Amino acid sequence: MPKWIIGIIAFVIGIAVVVYSSLDNDMRRLLKALPTDTNVLFWSIEQRDAAFRTMDRVTFLAKSNLIEAGDKVRKLPIGKSIKLDMDIDLYMQNQRSAGIVILHNGQVRFEQYGLEFTDTGRWTSFSVAKSFTSTLVGIAIKDGYIKSIDDMVSDYITDLKGSAYDDVSVAQLLTMTSGVKWNEDYEDPNSDVALFNQHVAN
Fold this sequence. Notes:
Layout: H1 3-22, H2 25-32, H3 45-51, H4 88-95, E1 99-104, E2 107-113, H5 128-142, H6 170-174, H7 192-198
Antiparallel strand pairs: 1-2
Helix pairs in contact: 2-3
């Protein structure tokens, strides 16, 4: 093999080593279990463990929005530690939990992490959005944008008139009791949730 080819190979390997060594543990984990498709429902456990903590940095996998902390961040005070009457390590391992935090009377009473996660780690939020949505609905009611949670959602989102959601109240949406047929089988590529995940809005 000519020396110039060996030189190019050595150069490429050197660059790869420098790039890899500059990555943090989360990005290295992602490289070892990089998802091969953008549908998160069908990723392997290893791919989920790696990608869910880096989705804000790998936009080719999924579009995400990073919400920066505000100027007035209030730390939660640490309260008296509580002992749980169970093997919490075994529970977290069996449930594949990245973290458990117990708040009581506004104080952190218990905090523990798994899956090589820490208190500074980030994880994609997914259904945490429901808590933010319900909070924003409360603000919208207080500010007069929504009159009542008993109103029909189609009163506010007129594009829903004539759809299955036409006679669904804001309260029913918030409590996920709309009665609208919805298949949430995460192993079925033709389920509603899988098809919704692939939908591109106009």
